Amino acid sequence: MTIISRDYFIRNDTLWMARDLIGKYLCTRLNGNTVTAGIITETEAYLGSVDRASHAYGNRRTARTNTMFMAGGIAYVYLCYGIHHLFNIVTNTENIPHAILIRGIFPVDGLEIMEQRIQKKLPLHLNGPGKLTLALGIKTLHDATSLEGGTIWLEDRSLLIDPKLVKTTPRIGVDYAGEDASLPWRFVLDNVDCLKRVDP
DNA sequence: CATTTGATGTTCT
DNA sequence: GAACATCAAATGC
In angstroms, what is the C-alpha Rg of chain A? Predict the structure, then answer.
């Protein structure tokens, strides 16, 4: 098990990272409590200045987007539709506002706590960016949090994903982005059943 | 089944 | 005041 360090996120290849993060583990520990974690099954890349779907299109700097201009390896969390907290990982170097939205996880650790947080039976696969943040306890207060501080982090547990199982599709809910809406910058693990827990 | 709608708050015009 | 990187429940076939 290796915690993914800032060096990983600072590299200048956000599309490669969006694909590489499939199969990595997203983990949280809130208030020193139990760890909750899941395997990342779905990501989307947002390439800042040149990407009409990105909040930071044209290097647009606001109170909200400012986080994306910071150096990679931190969280970008914002509220969507007034209800859902969406979790992104800031990538690339300072002043290059790239980010990767996490859209789905396969719950692995801290299942009971996740179930309490979502107030219903925990599904085998948490698909949807607003649902996994609720289960992991990620909120806008975690915006700009370092991914090396022990609250939110990513792990490589040497889970191997067959590259053929990672599908590439256009991103979801970005119709407003014109031609950029059809860019194949969403990465999804096709056969989630291959992760299914097996009873000992 | 497919499609619509209501909930809800922050940002930006 | 409109738009928004959504979701679940309700409605219409």
Answer: 16
